[in-house]
Amino acid sequence: MNESGGGGADRPFLLQAGRGGAGPTYGLFPLRRVGGRWTWEGDGADLTCHDTLAQPFPHTEAFNPADGLPDQPDEDDYDSVEAFNEAEDGWWERHDNIVFDPAHSVGLLYLCHLGCALREALVVTGPARGTMWADDTAEGGGFRPLHDDGPPLGFARWYQSAETTGCRCHDRSEGGPAAGDPPITVALNT
């Protein structure tokens, strides 16, 4: 896998990735070899696009792709339910095309989900490389760097936060690792 420029605290994770499961929130997405290629599995893991992972994530501050969209149609402004429904359908189509454009997540390696389509990702390329970001687009919140009481969280501090804030760890019946499962070694060409 040569998509990532991995370095710093995230490099050991990328080089010796576990089989998913335990970790912050609902646990890390499992890493699997499918069709001769390493890929992540799980609810939202497919948001990591191998073809754009090496492109730099350009942001260093929170942003919301929905900013600048016109207000949602108001039913009182329409003469019929059909006209309102047509306007609302058009608004949602435009919203989804803008907000969920994969261009917003280039350079992000999605690692886990928090439920309700909220996800967290590691920036692997670009000026914020090595920091963890929240993808809150499902709730209209956009993207934001993750912080505790200090600077943006890097991978190691983010992962370790599961020990202090608690985590919901998957058991074997939910597809998580069994005790003693060996790590998967991933060779990066960096």
Structure description:
The chain has 190 residues and is of the alpha+beta class. It is 19% helix and 17% strand. It is built from three helices and eight strands. The chain has helices at 10-15, 81-99, 155-165; strands at residues 16-17, 31-34, 37-40, 108-115, 118-123, 132-135, 143-145, 184-185. The strands form three sheets. Strands 4-5-6-7 form a four-stranded antiparallel sheet, with no helix packed on it. β2 (31-34) and β3 form a beta hairpin. It is elongated, with a radius of gyration of 19 Å. 28% of the residues are buried.
Briefly characterize the structure.
The protein has 190 residues and is of the alpha+beta class. The protein has helices at residues 10-15, 81-99, 155-165; strands at residues 16-17, 31-34, 37-40, 108-115, 118-123, 132-135, 143-145, 184-185. It is 19% helix and 17% strand.
Q: Average pLDDT, to the nearest integer? A: 75
Number of strands: 8
Q: Which overall shape is indicated by the principal axes computed on the Cα atoms? A: elongated
* Largest sheet geometry: 4 strands, antiparallel
Helical/strand content category: alpha+beta
**Which range best describes the helical content: under 10%, 10-25%, 25-40%, 40-55%, 55-70% or over 70%?**
10-25%
Strand order, largest beta sheet: 4-5-6-7
As a percent range, the share of strand residues is 15-25%
Order of helices and strands: HEEEHEEEEHE
Query: How many helical elements?
Result: 3
Q: How widely separated are the two ends?
A: 9 Å
Radius of gyration: 19 Å
Poorly predicted residue ranges? 1-7, 166-190
Please, what is the oligomeric state? single chain
